[in-house]
Every structure is written in C-alpha cells, then in structure tokens.
Amino acid sequence: MLLIELERNNKIMASKYFVGIDVGTNETKGILIDELGREVVSASTTHGVENPKPNYFEHDADKVWYKDICIISQKLINQSKVNPEDIKCIGISALSSDCLPVDIEGKPLRKAILYGIDARALAECQELTEKWGKDKVIELFGRPLGSSDIAPKILWIKNNEPDVYRKTHKFLTASSYITFKLTGNYTIDNFLGLASFNPLYNRDGSINEQYIDGICTASQLAVLKKTTDIAGYITDEASKDTGLAIGTAVITGGDDSGAEAISSGVMTPGDMLVQMGSTAYIILCTDKLYDDNRLWREEFIVPNTYDISAGTNTSGALTKWIRDTFYPDKIQEQKQGGINAYQAMMEDLKEIPIGSEGLVVLPYFAGERTPINDAHAKGIIFGLNLAHTRKHIMRAAYESVCYSIKHHFEIFKELGIPINQIMVTGGGTKNEVWIQMLSDVLGIKLQTPSVTIGASYGDALMAMIGANHIKGFAEAKKLIETGKVYYPNLENTKKYEPYYQIYIELYKQNKELMSMMDEIN
User: CA-based diameter of the chain, in Å?
Assistant: First the structure.
C-alpha cells in the first residue's frame, strides 16, 4: 500500500512533498517523498537509444528527455493524489556529458550527442591535445582527453555541422536542457559543468577565456550554479506539460551518477558508489584530489569534498545484448507469461562454474572509458571451444563486468585511497546473483540502500536541501538506510583471480589489433 494511503487512513497527512526525476540511458525514474524523506510513490518509463553509426549514440531531447519528465511528473501526482501546490521543490538529474545545441528559442538543432559512450569526436580530442599540448592536457584533466569531454563534442559540431554550430545559442547537457524547459533559465551545476566542460569554466563559475577560444563563445554556455541552488520556478507552459504547480521551485540538478551517490549516502570521504546501470559508474568521495590519468577527478557535489570517479561503457548494456542475442526464446516466454528472461538466464548461470569453463569476455563492446580510455577497444569472447554453450558465454559476460570493476579497485589500492563503505545501486541490483558475484570477485563486502530507485531519490533529497527544508547533506545522510548486505565468499575470490589475470592480459595483447580493425573499417 502506498505511504500516502496509510497516512490518510491514520489522518496524518504530510504538508510538504518533494519530487526527484532522473533521465537515464534507457529509462527514466521518478519519486515523490514526504517531508521526512520517506517514499510516497515512484514511477518509471523506458525509452531507446539511437545508434546511427558505430560509436554514435543519440537521444531526441524533446521526445525522450522532456517527454519522460512530463510523463513521470504526471504519474507521481496522479498516483499519489497529492495536491501539486504541496510539492515544494523538484530536482532533476540526467545523463552527464551530453552535448545538445539549441537555438535562440531554446529549440534543439540536432539530436543530443550522448555522454562517453559516443566516441565520434576522437579527431577533435587529438586536435585539442595538439593545440593545448599533452602536458597541459594532463595538468588540466589528470588524463588524456576522451569521449566523456564536451569540448571535443562542441568542436565536432563546429567541424562537421557548421550550419548547426552557426545557429547555436547554447550548448547544453540533458539536465541543463530539462531545467531550461521547466524554468526558462539556462543553468548547469558546478559538479557537472567543471568536470564535463573542463577547461571552459573557471572554478568560480566564470568563463575561462584562455581555453574557450576556437571552441565556442562565453554566451553559448549556461550559468554555473551549485547543484542544490534554485535554478528557477515552473513556468505556465511547463505546468501544463507536467502537472506541477506554477511557481514550484526547481533546483539546478545535475548528472545521474552524482545524484545516485547522494541517494545511497555517499557524502563523506571514504564512501563509494558502484552504479550498475546500462554502464557501470564508480564515485569515491575523498578529502583531496588524486591525480591519475586512468581515472577522473573533480570537486564533488558535497561542499569541501572531492571525488575520484570512473565509468565503463557497458554493464547492463552488455547483459541486455546477451539476452537479446542468445536468449530470444526466453524473451518470448516472458511475453507469454513465463518468468523474466533475466531470471531464466540466472538459472542457467548457476549451472556453469566460476571461470565459465575456460571462457573470458572483454566487455569493450562500445569502446571503453576508464581505466583504459580507448575508443578503439573491442569486445572479445576468448577461449571458445565446441563444448561451450550460450550459458557459458552469458556467465562469462557477467563475470567480465565484475572484472572491469575490479580493474578500478586495483588502481584505488595502488593509489592508497581509503574506502570505508561501498554502496551498490542501479538496475543491476535487482540481480542478486550478479551482485554476489561482484562481491566474490572483489573480495569485499557490498551494501545496497533501502530505497533502491537510485538517482531520483538523491534528486528529491537535494530538492529538500534546495528548499531549505533540511540543513545540508549531513542531515540528508541521516535519512539513508541500508538494505541488503553482500559478504564475499573468499574461496570464490581465489578461484576468480587467474581468470581476472587473463582478462587483463587480453586487452594488452590485442590493443594494437583493435586499432588496426578500426583503420580497416
């Protein structure tokens, strides 16, 4: 039963509510919470990703991003029966380093170029590296330029779509576009802006004139604000679209991974998030900046903290490909009332031993971000023989995602970064077999939060902060409760280790061949 119904029965009605909505790669989720931070009702809707060419990934900003916001906000209001006037603030998060050019009226001039999974701007990465110098790039970014950076994406539009570039009034991300649609104001949060648009903004929010030259103009960038700052208020038009009351406060919001971290209580140094979505994303909150060119580092959402972060290009996207490619029969059975196709896959997985009987997968099916930062990287299924079945390939794929996360943990250990607790979130947590596998591969205890919807809950908590309903992140952290805890089977950890070593060597031995394949094609 919904919390709101229980409250009505007890005649104890909350007077203030807060909404959080997160737009992800394949799904948008929303939550409405009461003044005590408790979930009242949640909702979700799915959408697709366009992949017109290899390494090109796009969303239609209006048909996906804004449409989903409208659908979810209406669902939350209708299902909860809450008076929209009682919703005091809304927080939005979305895909991080996307690039959407809009005209003077705020209308998209093309489909949005998505975050790091879109690697079309490799030539522009090289162009900027040559312009600024390799040493300066490492000084600015702590790593080489890559597909998660927006400056090369803007330059790609300039080089390849000059008409679009000429008409562009603003270059926006998903969250900044949605905030504009809701409030009419162009803003971007400092966490996302400083990281994804680096080095175009200075840390005080001003434009870095030294580096913006040749990429875009200062007027084409949104205003930098704190994530929890009020960006504006719901306009008449947005009210009609969303069902939210005119004048409802909207915080600046930001990227999905930062909001996901907040949703799970990652707010103090030593706290870590492992987000298992379409891709995998890791955020480790720290008390200082750590420089390592294999990873990313920036200031964190929480004041006076930093983070070292990482992101893979496949996680759930790979397991979905496995399902669609090797298990179409189970998809059909699910449609006809049978068990979920992923559940059926897990039953198969249990039949195959650790190491998939000599099969190791490289999960680089869409290039890879960290820690190898190689858009030319390719997926590999290594060790196939005539005794292997789809069950083996499927298990090896799940193991490969765990190995890719372990690869990052080895770097954290090398850098001597303290880790106090690890919270796992995202759609992957629905698969308890997989999360136990991850715990075994890492040899580390993992926890999930009790509220499992993810980033949208973090958005709602930050909306509470933005509306001055609670006093900052320390108070927000008190509202987070732990859900399921996974303890590693250390005997299994030992069994996985030799396969992990083969996983590491596979990329090293095939890196040049991967680049050669791109040259041929």
Answer: 70
